[in-house]
Amino acid sequence: MVRKVQRNEPCLCGSGKKYKKCCMIKERDHVVASVSRREGVQHALAWVSHHYSQQIEHWVEEVWLADISDEQRQGIANADPKIRSIHDVNLLEKLLAEGRFAGMDGEDRPLQLILDSDELALNQEQRDYLVQLPSCRLHLYTVAACAPGESFSVRNLLGGDGGEMTIADAYGSRMFDVGDTVGLRMLQTPSGWETSGAIYHIPDPYVVELKAQLATPEVDYSATLIHYWLELVAKHV
């Protein structure tokens, strides 16, 4: 286990200052900024849920649960409450990142409706965070390292650019073990990499099958990953 530097010890960055006068301040500011970004997302989700509840219900039926049988829907409804909570977060994250409301005149993207609203009074950092969502693809990652309560690192399971990414996340780092396979949407912030909040955990026995599906030419990566995960939730895997 790596020993944590103490407040009055020299900062590990080599500045010559005490930790409490150097990187400890930066880390605190990063945490505050991250909390503000997440609060912006929560306010945005509450707003869109209040103003467009019927459109969201229709989107859930026609998009989120597309090709999910009645039996599978019942399985999802009866899932463990913790899994249901993750399900609901994933659903709303997908809605913001990729969703469109059917049958609307004018703007039909929930995210743009949020950004155009004067009611929310989002600050610039919150807006910048939300604006990234549509351009950040959902990917399947393997957890390469984990410091519970602090951070975790991931690598793209199907290869690609970027190498290993480290995410300072007290919540996520407590959920993962090294070697876990998870679907995440990664966003770049002034503080470094962050996840969008959605987590699609894929148990080891199912990873090979999912990888084969995602490697199919012209596959809808996001829809395939989500549908596969929903089937696992329905089976209470």
Describe, in plain words, how this protein is organized in 3D.
The protein is an alpha+beta fold and 237 residues long. It contains nine helices and six strands. Strands 1, 2, 3, 4, 5 and 6 form a six-stranded antiparallel β-sheet that branches. Strand 2 and strand 3 form a beta hairpin.
SSE layout and pairing:
Blueprint: H1 23-51, H2 53-64, H3 70-77, H4 81-98, H5 110-116, H6 124-132, E1 138-147, E2 151-156, E3 165-168, H7 172-175, E4 181-189, E5 192-195, E6 200-202, H8 207-214, H9 221-234
Antiparallel strand pairs: 1-2, 1-4, 2-3, 4-5, 4-6
Helix pairs in contact: 1-6, 3-9
Summarize, please.
This protein is an alpha+beta fold and about 240 residues long.
Topology pattern, helix = H, strand = E: HHHHHHEEEHEEEHH
Please tell me what the overall shape is: globular
Query: How large is the radius of gyration?
Result: 19 Å
Unreliable residue stretches: none
Question: How much beta, percentage-wise?
Answer: 15-25%
Mean pLDDT: 89
Number of helices: 9
Please report the total strand number as a whole number.
6
Helical content class: 40-55%
Distance between the termini: 32 Å
Oligomer: single chain
Question: Describe the biggest sheet?
Answer: 6 strands, antiparallel
- Secondary-structure-derived class: alpha+beta
